[in-house]
Amino acid sequence: MNDPGLDEPIQQTSKDVEQDRKDELDFQKEDEQAFLNPSRWWFASTAFPLLAVFATQSTWQKED
User: Fold this and answer.
1) 21-59 pLDDT, tens digit each
2) CA-CA distance, 11 to 7, in Å (whole number)?
């Protein structure tokens, strides 16, 4: 039941759909990374200094 000459356009359309899906998944991954970057920045800019202050205070308390 194949019409002559339609195999190539069907295959090309299939490749186009697969490429569109791959592009969409790549965009979703980039979007997720963009969402996670602020939390990583918060952790680096807040948590580490807080830990440093805590560590410094605990050494001061041992000296007393």
Assistant:
1) 999 999 888 888 887 777 777 777 887 788 888 888 766
2) 6
The DSSP line for 22-47 is: HHHHHHHHHHHHHHHHHHHHHIIIII
Q: What is the pTM of this model?
A: 0.43
Query: What is d(CA 64, CA 62) in angstroms, rounded to the nearest whole number?
Result: 6
Distance, C-alpha 56 to centroid of its chain:
35
**Amino acid at residue number 16:** D
